[in-house]
Design a protein that fits this description.
There is one protein chain. This protein has 181 residues and is mainly alpha-helical. The protein has a domain of 124 residues: Orthogonal Bundle (Regulator of G-protein Signalling 4, domain 2), CATH 1.10.167. This is Regulator of G protein signaling 5.
């Protein structure tokens, strides 16, 4: 059993910091005007307009994160599951990278690259993804001159993490089990 924070594994410390930040935000006094304004970088989520997938389609998601991510219903279900676990940062990073790759304007690309870096990559970022220093260094070097592939290495690492960790948890969850009925 761990004694004190110093004895916790690195990932536990990161999780504890994340929880502390989220709890600190919740404990702040509410600003009545804040409820009336949607922050510039957040868009209201649109409900999925697609039908619930067949159990056969949902069954394919067990073996393929890519098939899950290609399904709008699967993506929405996976995102809801991750939010319920306070672990949606990897999926949000992956989605931000997909959006980034579609950017054609160099100025917009630089702007989006900076935002993605500040939100997900830099140390102590609000939604910092868990990538190794080697991957982080490559990504930072790629951002000197942003291109559609600037985040590819980091995105592949995060995809592998979701495939190895998040997807199996999702498949065991009630979210997924309900789809199989």
């Amino acid at each position: 059993m761990c004694k004190g924070l110093a004895a916790l594994p690195h990932s536990c410390l990161e999780r504890a910091k994340e929880i502390k930040i989220k709890l600190g935000t919740l404990l702040q006094k509410p600003d009545p005007a804040a409820d009336l304004v949607i922050p510039y970088n957040e868009k209201p989520e649109k409900p999925a307009k697609t039908q619930k997938p067949s159990p056969e389609e949902a069954l394919q998601w067990r073996d393929s994160l890519d098939k899950l991510l290609q399904s709008s219903y699967g993506l929405a279900s996976f995102k809801s599951f991750l939010k319920s676990e306070f672990s949606e940062e990897n999926l949000e990073f992956w989605m931000a990278c997909e959006d980034f790759k579609k950017t054609t304007s160099a100025a917009k690309m630089a702007e989006k690259a900076k935002k993605i870096y500040e939100e997900f990559i830099q140390t102590e970022a609000p939604k910092e993804v868990n990538i190794d220093h080697f991957t982080k260094d490559i990504t930072v070097r790629n951002l000197v001159e942003p291109s559609p592939s600037s985040f590819d290495v980091a995105q592949k690492r995060v995809h592998a993490l979701m495939e190895k960790d998040s997807l199996p948890r999702f498949v065991r969850s009630e979210f997924y089990q309900e789809l199989m009925k």
